[in-house]
Write a structure and sequence with these properties.
CATH superfamily of the largest domain: Dihydrodipicolinate Reductase, domain 2
Oligomer: single chain
Shape: elongated
Number of helices: 14
Largest sheet: 12 strands, mixed
CATH class of the largest domain: Alpha Beta
Number of domains: 3
Amino acid sequence: MGISIGLIGTGTIGSGVVRILARNSGLIEKRTGIRLSLKKVCDLNLENARSLGLRDEQLTKDYMDIIDDKDIDVVIELIGGYEPARTIILKALQSRKHVVTANKAVIAKHGKEIFSEAQRNDVSIAFEAAVGGCIPVIKMIRESYVADNIKDIYGILNGTTNYILTGMEKGVSYNEVLKKAQEKGFAEADPGFDVEGKDTAQKLSILSSLAFNADTGDAVFTEGITKIDKNDIQYADELGYKIKLLAIAKHENDEIELRVHPTMIPKQHELANAKDELNAVYVVGENTTKSMLYGKGAGQLPTATVVIGDVLDIARGKKQGFYLKQIKTKDINKVKSRYYLRYNVVDRPGVLAKISRILGDNNISIAAVQQKEVNKEVVPVIVITHEAAEEDVMRSIEEVDKLDVVRKGSIVIRIEDIG
């Protein structure tokens, strides 16, 4: 059985696809009985494509040469971004070609439109590499949980932020670890998309659309890691927690809760063991046991391998249905959890009493209080709360920060005691 491929984009992942097909296509055919051939490659930089050993007759700068080629069965889109990626994907589907992409941005934003077009033309759209790199989390949700109702998803979905937070566990500052991550290629020169949680939010949007059949749009509450201090990492450790940028999706009472933010999770939980650039996903079903996946979330060859795996699934006839419906998204202000609150206060009698009164007035019950001795005029006061509503906590923070004995902005970190 032969599958003819048109590849659009020879950047990092696209180059990996070319290299793997050149090196392993014979092995793939022996293992699967499927012969993959790269018929045409589109890139605006043909010199880069030629450097991969591709022949001139395979190359084009016009993606329509691939869309219009009746011999091509599968289009692999690897240029990233919203446009022209969205247009390319839609045109390929309309031409009754299957599509494989690693483009989380376009799937997160235009997934409903793309899924509908695939169904309309009876072709497949596959995007395993868009979420967890080499972690087969989409396959797990679509196949292992197809007969189950997923209740909760917890994920560490960004290698950059996980590398930074792991480095800070060693007592190194945020800026120092970020610089090291950039030197190693784990972080972009402008890391904002990663460290502000936007990358993770896009991935969570995709996972929740598959797990809950939810048209989530831009409903993911998002908060990054830039306010986390190495002292917070240390205090979390003393309390029995690790801080991770956690993607959280929960489905309960016809309502879904979607949020991405720094989170304290128990040190003994499996997710806490995901270090450095590793990603991890923890899924809780209604009927099945809990499932855990670890792996590298990025990298040229690991991601390219997953892309080719999607092509092979299409060749085997694995067709996936898409059913999205409108589901109410829980207002972040109504979400309840436990909280870690750090106040920087002037070391004076009566400060704790003032803070405690404000918390009590806002329906927040205190589980534990610590005042750290640092031999300075300004000292950190740590409060761990019982379960409280987000809106009550945020209102209390505003009131505490107005006290004349409080310095800098107070820090809020949510706690998830994952079972």
